[in-house]
Write a structure and sequence with these properties.
Oligomer: single chain
Helix content: 40-55%
Largest sheet: 4 strands, mixed
Bound molecules: iron/sulfur cluster, zinc ion
Shape: globular
Structural class: alpha+beta
Length: 326
């Protein structure tokens, strides 16, 4: 089927089939026109329904296509509406951030080129007592990864392990830190204002894996499996941030850096990466940031729900100043 736009449409859901896919699809030429053997998109439902075409009566097939099309089109429309809501939210937030930046520049007599605005999420603000069931899940996870790390297979694996995908981003950040002495300390300041907006996804695994344990074993060859599990369990706090990583406490991560996973030690969110990149570009100019912390955590900030402003601050490598605007 060819749509008004000249694009080839899926016979089932009528979505445009990407040009790249068309290049791979078998076809014949009839009266100078391409006829694709299977003109359907990649959606599993479309593929499955098209395959049934030959085995069911034509009228029944058409009925099923109509029904399927209405479901898919409804879903696509809902998805587009949701994307538009997210875009509208981002646009409103950007306007608010700019407005706050203007007010802060006046209130604190700042040069806006020296203090760009940086919007950041925040971690949860409620504390709850760590439950036995969470500890049990964590212990089970620790037992599993420690057992793997003490097996011969795992030790061989670490030698051949591929470079993790996050490594390149981490390496870039390390390069930036070398080029601009303030980047490292400013990153830490920003994360302090956010209080672990990314840590909520740590749940009861804390991103720990057998590779973390292997790293600890290499540094401490005398440690037994039970010693390593005990190190992690002993580090737990009785009170943790609600709905977040088991190690997330009101004063930060309960684990020393050498016990954390590489993911935890190397991760910075896109906001921080973009800001440090800007610092490299404007090398001598940027001295700090006007930070706008919003109520959603890092992962929720990508949805369409409202995210209120919870703090406005001026952050430099030396200090974090809360500025209350009227
Ligand atoms: S990396 Fe980003 S989300 Fe995580 S604590 Fe720092 S500012 Fe917050
Ligand atoms: S282990 Fe620490 S750094 Fe890692 S997710 Fe949990 S609280 Fe955050
Ligand atoms: Zn389709």
């Amino acid at each position: 089927m060819v749509g008004y736009s000249g694009k080839v449409l899926c016979d089932i859901c009528e979505a445009a089939i990407p040009a790249q896919k068309l290049l791979r699809m078998p076809y014949s030429i009839e009266n100078g026109v391409r006829r694709y053997e299977k003109p359907v998109c990649d959606a599993h439902e479309c593929q499955r329904l098209f395959e049934r075409k030959a085995s069911i009566p034509e009228y029944l097939f058409r009925k099923q296509v109509e029904f399927h099309r209405s479901v898919i089109q409804g879903r696509t429309q809902a998805c587009e509406e949701y994307k538009a809501k997210i875009a509208a939210k981002q646009s409103t937030q950007n306007d608010e951030n700019r407005e706050i930046a203007l007010q802060m520049v006046v209130a604190e007599s700042l040069d806006p080129t020296e203090f760009p605005v940086l919007a950041l999420p925040t971690g949860p603000d409620k504390v709850s007592e760590l439950t036995e069931s969470r500890i049990a899940k964590y212990r089970k996870h620790l037992d599993t990864i420690v057992e793997k790390a003490f097996s011969v297979d795992a030790q061989e694996q670490i030698v051949t392990e591929a470079v993790p995908p996050s490594f390149k981003r981490h390496a870039k950040m390390e390069e930036r830190k070398k080029k601009h002495q303030d980047i490292g300390v400013l990153n830490d300041q920003f994360c302090t204002t956010c209080k672990g907006g990314c840590c909520v996804s740590g749940n009861d695994h804390a991103y720990l894996s057998e590779n973390t344990i292997l790293r600890i074993r290499r540094a401490n060859p005398d440690l037994e499996a039970t010693d390593i599990v005990a190190l992690y369990l002993d580090a737990l706090d009785v009170n943790v941030m609600s709905s977040s990583c088991i190690n997330h406490t009101a004063v930060g991560c309960a684990l020393n850096r050498d016990l954390r996973s590489d993911i935890c030690n190397q991760f910075f969110c896109e906001h921080i990466h973009a800001f440090s990149e800007q610092m490299i570009e404007d090398k001598s100019i940027v001295r700090g940031a006007i930070v706008v912390n919003r109520s959603q955590n890092l992962w929720d900030s990508e949805n369409a729900d409202e995210s209120e402003i919870v703090a406005t601050l001026v952050v430099t490598p030396q200090r974090i100043k809360v500025v209350n605007l009227d």
